[in-house]
């Protein structure tokens, strides 16, 4: 099984490389996601240990830390209230879509609610079982949402926000220097240690970005890494995302039928609208606003920002804030909606 998983990851990275060579927006990411979907649906699904995903995410976070700009960090405090407004709109949308899912199908109220909460997929799936929800169906819905947004958003932005990079630079393959290798090793080790000791939403991504930023600011001067290095990280994230969309997910979607399409389409349209309003309020470019507020995974959208050369500092920061805020608001929302754990009478 280890050999098969290794072959799959190599294949996903290679397809991502080919997509990148063809100048497809976020080619590394989209190519590997599609490889995972094809493998999961038509061949077999692989279960990867969560620590492996965290290791890759730490590597990606280290890449992102090298792109952080101080000026962008100073803007974050001014963006919180508009971001909070988009979060509240998405929560309200998720609640209404949950009611729709419950009424249109035979899915129970609690499961429908957790299926449609747009954000913090790992955390939502993790706690849904405690409230009597079918966590398998919840996982399927969140997999569909994240997969759809991770593929569609880069294509949409790439079409309206094309990247102009010299082919010799874009496709060149350069080995990492010893100092760069040391940098990545230090960031990954510190991140995994902190992630084990401190548990909260988005921890792995936060620790890796902050650690890398502090290292380069206070102790080490690191030259920009080759694009291929960042691309491989993007492809590995895509491989983990794509393989989740397997036959079981497809069966779950098929059972629910057109309601799934309606829910995802509605959420997509609401996202485009809230992103436009966020742009008008903050003055950020629409590409930045969309990637920063779309209810997809923080890691996936931050990787998308790097791939499309959209300000990764703002995107990573706002997604981390979004995930934490959603998770904090969730407990109040559950009480407000009187959704009780399966242990409560």
Detailed description of the structure:
- With 345 residues, the chain is an all-alpha fold.
- It has helices at residues 2-21, 27-43, 50-65, 70-104, 109-116, 121-128, 135-160, 167-170, 178-197, 203-219, 227-242, 247-256, 258-282, 286-293, 298-307, 312-336.
- Residues 165-171 have low confidence and may be disordered.
- 77% of the residues lie in helices and 0% in strands.
- It contains 16 helices and no strands.
- The chain has one domain: Na+/H+ antiporter like fold.
Set out the fold topology:
Elements: H1 2-21, H2 27-43, H3 50-65, H4 70-104, H5 109-116, H6 121-128, H7 135-160, H8 167-170, H9 178-197, H10 203-219, H11 227-242, H12 247-256, H13 258-282, H14 286-293, H15 298-307, H16 312-336
Helix pairs in contact: 1-2, 1-11, 2-11, 3-9, 3-10, 3-11, 3-15, 4-5, 4-13, 4-16, 5-7, 6-7, 7-12, 9-10, 11-15, 13-14, 14-16, 15-16
Task: Give the structure's gist in a few sentences.
This protein is mainly alpha-helical and 345 residues long. The chain has helices at residues 2-21, 27-43, 50-65, 70-104, 109-116, 121-128, 135-160, 167-170, 178-197, 203-219, 227-242, 247-256, 258-282, 286-293, 298-307, 312-336. It has a single domain (2-44, 51-336), classed as Na+/H+ antiporter like fold (Up-down Bundle), CATH 1.20.1530.
What tags apply to this protein structure?
345 residues
Unreliable runs, pLDDT <50, ≥5 residues? 165-171
Question: In total, how many domains does the architecture comprise?
Answer: 1
In CATH, the topology is named: Na+/H+ antiporter like fold
What is the share of helical residues?
over 70%
Mean of all residue-level pLDDT scores: 87
According to DSSP, the number of beta strands is: 0
């Amino acid at each position: 099984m280890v050999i098969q998983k290794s072959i799959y990851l190599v294949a996903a990275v290679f397809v991502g490389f080919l997509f990148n060579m063809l100048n497809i927006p976020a080619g590394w990411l989209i190519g590997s996601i599609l490889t995972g979907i094809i493998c999961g649906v038509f061949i077999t699904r692989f279960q990867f240990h969560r620590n492996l995903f965290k290791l890759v995410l730490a590597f990606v976070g280290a890449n992102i830390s090298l792109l952080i700009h101080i000026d962008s960090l100073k803007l974050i405090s001014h963006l919180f209230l508009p971001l909070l407004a988009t979060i509240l709109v998405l929560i309200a949308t998720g609640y209404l879509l949950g009611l729709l899912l419950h009424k249109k199908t035979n899915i129970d109220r609690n499961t429908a609610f957790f299926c449609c909460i747009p954000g913090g997929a790992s955390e939502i799936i993790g706690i849904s079982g405690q409230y009597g929800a079918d966590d398998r169906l919840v996982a399927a819905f969140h997999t569909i949402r994240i997969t759809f947004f991770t593929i569609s958003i880069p294509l949409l932005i790439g079409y309206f926000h094309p990247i102009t990079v010299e082919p010799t630079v874009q496709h060149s393959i350069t080995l990492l220097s010893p100092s760069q290798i040391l940098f990545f090793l230090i960031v990954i080790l510190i991140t995994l240690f902190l992630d084990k000791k401190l548990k909260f939403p988005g921890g792995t991504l936060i620790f890796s970005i902050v650690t890398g930023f502090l290292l380069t600011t206070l102790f080490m001067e690191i030259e920009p890494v080759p694009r291929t290095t960042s691309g491989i990280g993007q492809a590995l994230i895509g491989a983990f995302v794509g393989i989740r969309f397997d036959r079981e997910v497809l069966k779950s979607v098929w059972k629910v039928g057109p309601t799934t399409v309606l829910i995802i389409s509605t959420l997509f349209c609401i996202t485009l609208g809230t992103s436009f309003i966020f742009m008008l309020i903050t003055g950020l470019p629409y590409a930045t606003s969309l990637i920063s507020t779309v209810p997809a995974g923080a890691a996936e959208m931050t990787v998308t920002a790097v791939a499309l050369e959209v300000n990764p500092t703002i995107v990573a920061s706002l997604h981390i804030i979004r995930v934490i805020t959603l998770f904090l608001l969730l407990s109040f929302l559950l009480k407000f909606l009187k959704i009780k754990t399966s242990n409560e009478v």
